[in-house]
Amino acid sequence: MDGPREQPPNGERSSSPTTGWPPWTAAVALLGGLALALVGGLVVDLPALALGVRISSAHTPPGVTIADTVVQDVGFVLAAVYCAHLGGRAVRSWQFGLRRPAVGWRPASGMIVLLLVAFIVVSAIAPGPFASQMNRAARDHEDVVASRTPLRRIGRDDDMAGAAIFLASRAGDYVVGDTIAVDGGIAYASID
């Protein structure tokens, strides 16, 4: 139990190696993470309230929501790392599901930091089945995938372009922090 632990094979996602952490560390990490998340939320919300930000159960400004989420996520990670060290174990990035980033991670991480610092809330487009390199099933088996969508077809380029133009135009100025599903109705259909 105290010997070295097996590392997961590079690129292997089907299983993780055994860690040998004592079972009690999971409950302590969860409770510690909840406590840190609560304190972190208060650290963000109380100064915001003092500065005149209106926060209620029905309305939380997007910038405060992002700050709360970041602080609370960091709280959970810190609790897990602390409990791992309590259990006498080294913490590895793969234990959090992290993999070595691919090329281009520095510009992307810089943009994320810039967005977080500026409290800019972005909207996103969630594509459904489109024939692309990322969605090979829709590309290689268009008829089968189309038969499983409510509109009975896969997405076309103009479907995605319409959503992108909407978000980039004046018409989309009041859409903040939302994800637009361009999926032919998959997100709202109950498929048996």
Keywords:
192 residues; mainly alpha; Helicase, Ruva Protein, domain 3; 2 domains; 2 strands; 4% strand; extended
Structure description:
This protein is mainly alpha-helical and 192 residues long. The protein folds into two domains: 73 residues, no CATH class; 67 residues, Orthogonal Bundle (Helicase, Ruva Protein, domain 3). 46% of the residues lie in helices and 4% in strands. It is built from six helices and two strands; from the N terminus they run H-H-H-E-H-H-H-E. It has a two-stranded parallel ribbon with strand order 1-2. Helix 1 runs antiparallel to helix 2. The radius of gyration is 22 Å and the shape is extended. The chain starts with 23 loop residues before the first helix and ends in a 10-residue tail after the last strand. The mean pLDDT is 76.
How many domains? The number is: 2
Q: Overall 3D geometry?
A: extended
Strand fraction equals under 5%
Question: Roughly what percent helix?
Answer: 40-55%
Number of strands: 2
Overall pLDDT, averaged? 76
Order of helices and strands: HHHEHHHE
Question: Count of helical segments?
Answer: 6
Topology overview:
Elements: H1 24-50, H2 62-86, H3 105-118, E1 124-127, H4 136-140, H5 142-147, H6 157-168, E2 179-182
Parallel strand pairs: 1-2
Helix pairs in contact: 1-2
